Amino acid sequence: MESQPGPRVLSGIMPTGSLHLGNYLGAIVHWVDLQHRYPSFFCVVDLHAITTPQKPTELHEKTREVAGLLLAAGIDPSVATIFVQSHVPAHAELAWMLDCIASMGRLERMTQFKEKAGREREAASVGLFAYPVLQSADILLYSGRPPRPVLVPVGADQRQHLELARDLAARFNHRFGVVFGEPEPVISEAGARIMGLQNPTKKMSKSGKNPYDTIRLLDSPDDVRRKIARAVTGPGREVRFDETQPGLYNLLTIYQLLSGESRSDIESHFQGKGYADLKRELAELIIARLRPLQERYQEIRRDRAALEGVLAEGCQRARVEADVVLQAAKSAMGLG
Ligand code: AMP
Ligand code: TRP
Asked: Which ligand is nearest to the CA of 199?
């Protein structure tokens, strides 16, 4: 893999809460697509999860659940490397080195920290504050030697973190000599920000309090029907991509991404029909996409040893990749 020219792909997902349609359409479908074009690394970021309190047994289980869902969604361990972040010590090690070149002021401006720490800033963990630096380390470790760009497929909420990763790479390379490639965000136009079904001005999120806001990848068909039926649409009757109606717009965006049809075809399809028709058809579209994914997931979870095997092999491959870059970074900094 090392000798392959051209960019690499790396992305990560936290093993907290439940994976949902936003994660799937904003990130995971792109991972599945990109894995066939570039050497790709997908990481279940358990070290990021512990920046807020987690129950150890649940964290361990969630990590397997998320890995299983990624495989069920189409990540193919024979072409891509799938691994658990904490299994590859280079992530924590490089994160410390980057902590020492990142500035407090820059991290204080990170919106995700401000949102997550909320009014409890003083009580927030140091890890939560340094979270984006660990994310930079995740990415930069897969630059390869010689350094190549790293494509990072994510939802729009990660844009600011990727800018930090770019700046830290540039700062390091400038001070110590070129070790890291440039991180490049891959953020799709549609799907980069799937909104909550009840509150369509806020993104669909794992940690949301209202279960009706989120379609989880493991929701039953009845759950999907109920949640879509209850989704907020707004006033009016026509089924059109109208950005002034965020609820309707979000449902149509999900419809567009799952059906693969153009916006104008969708609008003509629903001409003369109402919101109830859209909701009924959308629910069935979601169910049809989730069903095979859920079936594969159940199969994967039945064979615990096989899943552990995939993660162990991913860990080996990721360690080889990451260690080469870590050693180059250490020697550039005068460590080791
Ligand atoms: P997280 O749930 O924060 O671990 O995010 C995992 C990936 O899913 C990241 O690339 C996020 O940007 C993406 N993501 C999370 N929520 C959404 C959403 N509502 N719409 C689109 N992408 C999302
Ligand atoms: N911070 C990302 C999120 O909340 C998860 C993440 C961790 C990540 N490390 C990464 C994403 C590296 C892309 C690349 O979604």
From this structure: 1
Q: Is 206 a catalytic residue?
A: yes
* pLDDT surpassing 80 at residue 4: no
Q: Which domains does the chain have, with CATH numbers?
A: 8-192+303-333 (3.40.50.620), 211-298 (1.10.240.10)
Q: Which residue type sits at 211? A: P
C-alpha of residue 12 to centroid of ligand 1, in Å: 10
Instruction: Write the residue with the smallest CA distance to atom 11 of ligand 1.
Output: 155
Backbone angle region of 106, left / alpha / beta, with phi > 0 → left and psi within -120 to 50 → alpha: alpha
How far is residue 299 CA from its own chain's centroid?
23
Q: Tell me: the pLDDT tens digits for 57-81?
A: 999 999 999 999 999 999 999 999 9
Quote the pTM value: 0.96
User: Which pLDDT score is estimated for 152?
Assistant: 98
Question: Among 62, 203, 227, 279, which one carries the catalytic annotation?
Answer: 203
- Residue 3 CB: number of other CB atoms within 10 A? 6
